[in-house]
Amino acid sequence: MELATRHASRTVVRSGRSTVLDAEGRRALLARSELFAGLPAPVLDDLAERSHGRYLDSGELVFRNNDPADFAALVAEGAVYAILYGPDGRELIVDMAGSGQAIGEAALLGASVHHFTAVAVGMATVLLLRRVHLARLLTEPQFLNRVLLLLAARVSRTAKALETMCLYSLESRLARYLLDAAERDGHGVGQIQLPPTQGILASMLNASRPKLNALLQGWQRAGLISRERNVLYVHDFEQLRRKACAPERRL
Questions:
Q1: Percent of the chain scoring above 90 in pLDDT
Q2: Do the Cβ atoms of 227 and 190 come closer than 8 Å?
Q3: Over the stretch 101-117, which tens digit does the pLDDT of each residue have?
């Protein structure tokens, strides 16, 4: 399989960084994030002073699997993927964090190591939050409950992904991905923004790029979908739902 992060670094281009993470920018990011929105102003001011920003090039690591988990990262701009690597180098994208979302937040609850590798896809800006600076905040029930809810949502997404990858064919995996994307990004409308490269999509589906490409071309010929660069159009949602429910066929 083509390495998604390496491929992305060749193809994702931005004209420049638009996020400036001075103290005011850090505070604004914290105030609109899933994790810290609504916290008292003095708490946000203190976190803004103690945290620091980091600019990432495409393919640059935030942390590696099994690195000490003494910090979490809050994405200010761009996207960071959570990736697992097999012994043969094959990669599997199991989650992602976009602007305003945290990644590696299990570190805040005392996890000893990170359990995946976090990689920027395209240029990204993150805010690094050290666990030692959040010790007092973690005694606050409101904040602790929010961290637990976000972790529970991540566990739910991971469990759903494992179910799909283990029990469904590639055709069903792709159909399920497209239905979820249509609901999440387009509110059920048939226009879906695909990941920057087909290699990344293949890593999300635990598939080889040639097999994924052959499947997409077959669906295009059948009139189920059409594509224009990284935008995919679904023309028959009912057929896509039937494909999504078909289990893996065993010999």
A1: 56
A2: no
A3: 999 988 888 889 999 99
Q: Which amino acid is at 135?
A: A
- Residue 55 and residue 138 in one domain: yes
- In contact, 35 and 100? CB cutoff 8 Å: no
Query: Residues 6 or more apart from 177 whose CB is under 8 A from it?
Result: 201, 204, 205
Could you tell me if 186 and 155 are in contact, meaning their C-beta atoms sit under 8 angstroms apart?
A: no
Q: Is the pLDDT of residue 151 over 90?
A: no
Q: Terminal CA-to-CA distance of the chain, rounded, Å?
A: 25
Instruction: Give the pair of three-digit tokens for residue 210.
Output: 């040639």
Query: CATH number of the domain that 43 lies in?
Result: 2.60.120.10
- Domain membership of residue 187 (yes or no) is yes
- Return the closest-CA partner of residue 133 out of 45, 238, 37, 231: 45
What angle separates helix 170-186 from helix 141-167, to the nearest 10 degrees? 140
pTM of the model: 0.80
The answer on 189 and 159 residing in a single domain is no
